[in-house]
Design a protein that fits this description.
Helices cover 30% and strands 26% of the residues. It is α/β, with parallel strands linked by helices and 314 residues long. The chain has 2 domains: 168 residues, Rossmann fold; 138 residues, Rossmann fold. The strands form 4 sheets. It has a 6-stranded parallel sheet, sandwiched between helices. A 5-stranded parallel sheet has the order 1-4-5-6-7, sandwiched between helices. Strands 2-3 form a two-stranded antiparallel ribbon. Strand 4, helix 2 and strand 5 form a beta-alpha-beta unit. Helix 1 packs across helix 8 and helix 4 crosses helix 5.
């Protein structure tokens, strides 16, 4: 197909990111028609016919409203006979809840929420820097999925800092494999901190290797929520002799008083993407866009479709 058959829409939260993607693709962004009634119900309508079109939906599911809107857009695409429905999830809400403890009776919403998206019957769903790839398999095999890694953008961002001697630091061993891959691309050293979680949003970070001594430490993670473990890791780096500390994470949630905590810390800058809605660059936060990654994924999938058996769940 060509880009002329593509209709690109977004949920309300991810509209700014979707506009960037539309510009890169050279297509018109289709703004959904939205109304809110006095009883709280929401009205949605496509601005033009999507019949026999390849519908692209970009939508972070960072809160319940945005998650529901993505579901509505998918089902609307089915109702109005889109040729294909292709969904890009820049940030997947509840992504850290993909596993449950035995006998806890908790709901693994990372899986159940993603399964809701799959059961709305899109043809293709792509996610950016998932916390766990387990959610990719929460369907019966009838949907093409893709995990989009932001490694290339991360490498470009770190290189743009002009740092001469730096080391990448993972706040725990669970993320160390990704950090090792980034370090290989950047030809730099890497290490991991000892972290233990003792409550829902509470962690304690132990020591960091002396490899950070007299170097700039860049603490890397997939997301920053409260910032607790990141700031603890930064402090351990400084205690181990690091000259200064940067923080890098794809998804900048920065919930609660996280921003204030970072402002009170000795962290130089926070580097992250625009995958999480509402993130804006300022003196503390340096934001790069994931729009080029989304454009590339859509180009390879829709405009030049790859071999489906080879690309499934890649």
């Amino acid at each position: 197909m060509s880009s002329h058959n593509l209709v690109l829409v977004a949920n309300e939260a991810s509209t700014p990111l979707a506009r960037k993607v539309a510009d890169l693709l050279g297509v018109e962004f289709s703004e959904m028609i939205r109304k809110r009634f006095s009883d709280g119900e929401r009205y949605h309508a496509f601005p033009a016919s999507i019949s026999e079109k390849d519908l692209v939906i970009i939508g972070a599911t960072h809160n319940d409203s945005s998650h529901q809107e993505v579901l509505d857009l998918i089902q609307g695409g089915r109702y109005w006979n889109a040729t294909s429905i292709n969904v890009i999830i820049p940030f997947l809400g509840y992504s850290t809840m993909e596993r449950v403890k035995p006998d806890s009776r908790e709901i693994p919403k990372g899986i159940t929420r993603t399964r809701q998206i799959f059961r709305a019957r899109p043809n293709f769903v792509a996610f950016i820097d998932l916390h766990s790839e387990a959610v990719l398999h929460a369907h019966a095999g009838e949907i093409r999925t893709k995990h989009i890694w932001s490694d290339r953008l991360v490498v470009e961002k770190v290189q743009s800092l002009g740092l001469e001697d730096f080391v990448l630091v993972s706040p725990d061993y669970g993320f160390s494999k990704r950090v090792a891959r980034l370090a290989s691309l950047l030809s730099c050293a890497h290490t991991a901190a000892d972290k233990d979680r003792y409550d829902t949003d509470k962690t304690i970070v132990g020591q960091v290797s002396s490899v950070v001594k007299d170097r700039t430490a860049i603490v890397c993670d997939d997301m920053i929520r409260t910032g607790g473990s990141i700031i603890q890791t930064a402090n351990r780096c400084l205690e181990a002799g690091a000259r200064e500390v940067y923080v890098l994470a794809t998804h900048l949630v920065l919930s609660g008083n996280a921003r204030h905590r970072f402002e009170q810390s000795r962290i130089v800058r926070i580097l992250g993407s625009d995958s999480y809605p509402g993130v804006e660059p300022d003196d503390l936060v340096d934001v790069y866009s994931v729009a080029p990654l989304i454009k590339k994924a859509l180009t390879s999938h829709l405009i030049s479709p790859p071999d489906q058996t080879r690309d499934r769940n890649s």
